[in-house]
Amino acid sequence: MRKNQFVSILKIGLFVFFLGSTLAVSAQKSTSKKVKEEPKDSLSKGYKDYDKLIEKATVTKGLFSIIKSENDYYFEIPDSLFAREFLVVNKISQVPLAINETGLNKGMNYENKLITFHKDSISKAIWVKTSKPMVSSPEEDAITLSVKDNFAESIIEKFDIESYNTKTNAILIKVNKVFNGKEKSFNDVLNNIGLGGSVKSDLSYIEKIKTFPKNVVIKSQLTTTVSEGGAAMYITLGVTSNIVLLPKVPMQARQLDKRVGFFTEKHWSFNDKQQAMKEQELITRWRLEPKAEDVEKYTRGELVEPKKPIVYYIDPATPKQWRNYIIQGVKDWQVAFEKAGFKNAITAKEPDANDKDFDVDDVRYSVITYAASPKANAMGPSVVDPRSGEIIEADIIWWHNVMTSLQSWMRIQTGPIDSKSRGNVFNDAHMGEAIRFVSSHEVGHTFGLKHNMGASYSFPVDSLRSKTFTDKMGGTAPSIMDYARYNYVAQPEDNVTAITPKIGVYDTYAIQWGYQWFKNKVDEKRELQKLVNSHNNDPLYFYGEQQSYKNTVDPRSQSEDLGDNAMLASTYGLKNLKRVTNNLEKWTYQEGEDYYKTGKLYLGVIGQWNMYNAHVTNNVGGVYLNTIQHGDGKESYKPVSYQLQKDAVAYLSKNVFTLPEWLFFNPVLKHTYAIKDSPLGPFEQTPYTLARALQYDALYNLLEDERLLRLVEAKLYNPENEPRYSVQNLFTDLRSHIFRNTKKGKSLELVDRMTQKNYVDVLLVGTQKIMEKTTVKNSATLDFHLDGSFCSVALNEKKQARNINYTSMKRTSEITSYKRQELQNVLQLLEKKKRKGDANTQAHYNDLIYRIKNTLKF
């Protein structure tokens, strides 16, 4: 065996071992026999004298008593906490400029792990073990013996026993090494945030340790150096580690129904009666339960207050004018929890100024943390008990610059119908309502809700132009968890005023499904199934999982689209974009200022146009993906209809492959180009270059192999014999439009020649890429998608709705044949018309002929 082969096998083995060894049994208990207790008068032999150790030390009582002696910190661990399960939660508390610019800020949770402490009196040591509790089995089943042996804990740390408290039998361990950066067992911040390297111990230290009844909070300053080919840059990170005692009995878990969108924890279940292991997904949710005295009221359908409500605190660093809007965004969810049977279940408030222990990084507090940063974003992750999916704390990060995204969306999408959305600066009330919307969306994630990108599809496009409909439904979609930003469909004459996303009927239904309390699992399973089935055919309750922006299969579930017909919605959207374009200078005018803001708004308009193109394109080769169950009579895969796909290509031909002069060649170019910010400063995008790149990108995406393969598949499997839009239909429709003036023998304008070059080049690149198994030319993809990711919760959220293979062995598929044949068709037309038109046109034809022949080897 060669050395490199051995190394590869070793790496694979270690990976498998690591994966297996990190799993554990949720019900697993320590199987080691209890060590015979030593007489208390002999416990101190061989150890530091406890009384002398604490004589000049500071002692703080709590979950672990904390003993600080000069620069040394000790945990005093009582016997009752050995083998109990704890969750280590690590967060960022401070960052320098270099880290801030990467989007890593205070309040972000970067690492969690479950640990247990085990006392070994013989070795005079405490072993710390870790596990991932995603496996369970009945204690009385024979297979449980195998489960325990095959999903064991792994040792991550060893502490020497320093001393005993002879009065309580508690032991002392010195913990400096795991919190000052010397060891990575409890806190591996550098690797988890992507910096790598090691902590410089001489420039790092423990700031303080606080202890409370159910958690310990450790704050540290950790320094490293980063060198990028130049002088070393010193980076000091403030980090906070929480050690949280988990309940002995985990919360009753609830299994996912894939027709409702919740984040989940994976779980494997074993028992003796199985013929196969059962894979489960446990939803993440807060533990909301009625008080014992209210159980009967609750079961009768009366609203009751939960034992422990969900409370969010506003970071004191939040500007005062926005606090009430953020608070209201949280409280707007009250109506949803009432649907689940609980009143006063949630609230948000500012922290008590007299609470000296308040700390935004303490897991006892769910905090909406305000980050001073250039990043324009917000996110809403949670800390979860991995044994059950119980959310124990929420960490919403609110970046200051998210308001720049909000202003851009409102100006571009609603400026034509709302005068308040036109200026360089909005009044506080108008911006406050936008902040309230984002607050509600992010808080929804901390309840366990995933994005529902399919919600907006349930609204007919023309209904979004109806004041009556929008007033009744409250916004742009039946779920605030969609990326249905603002109503860009409504026209000025429609007088629509409900243009902001609101909590909708899907949201209240999802909260009811996730949080309604039941006395037993039998009732829970029956009633929840009944609830989903009762709405299964109502489009308002449809759940469409988030997909990759660049690989969207189901066009119903797209980011930032509106309504049930992307072509119609985008047509209305273009009408409004023209109005914005005509007012670029007026809306951004500021005496004595340059045209930077005008150029930025101009780029935003182009980005919105480009986003409409993507919404429309995804209908071509689109497949509706439905989550179905036996007996519900639904189809799992249903191709988009022939007519909708043809309409999509017609839209693109009219608005993309005929370049919109109103957008790319308008009078604003006398004063500014479109301006895009970058780390190197603003970049001015010249109109011809920008238009050429974006049009190329649209063609490349439309003719990508996977999209064409979906068209082939739809044609092949068609038991109903419905008309299917085919690859041949697509090429015929595109060629007929792109070469329409060529067929007439006319001279071509620059933009016409540009479109033909883009079309031929996309075909050439696609053909070569498949046959050579390499990328001959990268797509000129430019991300002018209006920053649609104000929500970065997707740390554990899949971007693809379904894993469907349309890509294997593309070399033997029909795609290359179709693309080659289309090149032949174009070549034949060009040969016939190469002497038509002016000199520029003829030179253009000869160039295309040469390129095609050179690729096809004629």
From TrEMBL:
SUPFAM superfamilies: Metalloproteases ('zincins'), catalytic domain
Signal peptide: 1-26
Segments forming domain EcxA zinc-binding: 424-744
Xref: Pfam families: DUF4953, DUF5117, DUF5118
UniProt-recorded Gene Ontology molecular function terms: metallopeptidase activity
Source organism superkingdom: Bacteria
Domain (DUF5117) ranges: 107-291
Domain DUF5118 as annotated: residue spans: 48-95
Name the record gives this protein: Metalloprotease
Organism field: Cellulophaga fucicola
Taxonomic lineage: Bacteria, Pseudomonadati, Bacteroidota, Flavobacteriia, Flavobacteriales
